[in-house]
Amino acid sequence: MSLCESWLWSTWVKTPCLRGDLLIVSACLRNINSRIVEELAKGKTVLYACPEREHPALYGKIASIVRSSKPRSITVVTVDGSPHCFQLHAAVNEAEYILGEKIERKHYVVVDGEKLVEISPDAVRVARYLHLVDELVKTNREVLKKLEMHSLEYRKALEIERKQSS
Hints:
6 strands, alpha/beta, 2 domains, 6-stranded mixed β-sheet, single chain, 8 helices
């Protein structure tokens, strides 16, 4: 069971329960796979967030929480492939940068609603730089086969491409 639950944007940065271990969760993940959320939430304060629903100033909010409450750790778990959810990972990395101090953190994504995968902070950093991602794709074309297994958008793009070339 979690220590307390709230919406990230609606939480006072000095709320006492923020001093422990935090879990920042994509709000939609409760509906996708509540088992993963419940497992990760044990002993943590849960902050739900949806960059699509809430104000985009999450970067500053997370940095303010870290500065004001000094949480022991932050774990972020989001839906893999969501462009909105990615912002939560980037915001935690950015908080460390803004504050200039180490934040104990873990990043996870839930792949296809089922599989929990840990992501390194460096993967989050690289994802912000599309020219670097493009280099990686060009040097490792196999990754597109993996993308096809997970991305409806990519499969549709391939279908459109095939129709236009025939």
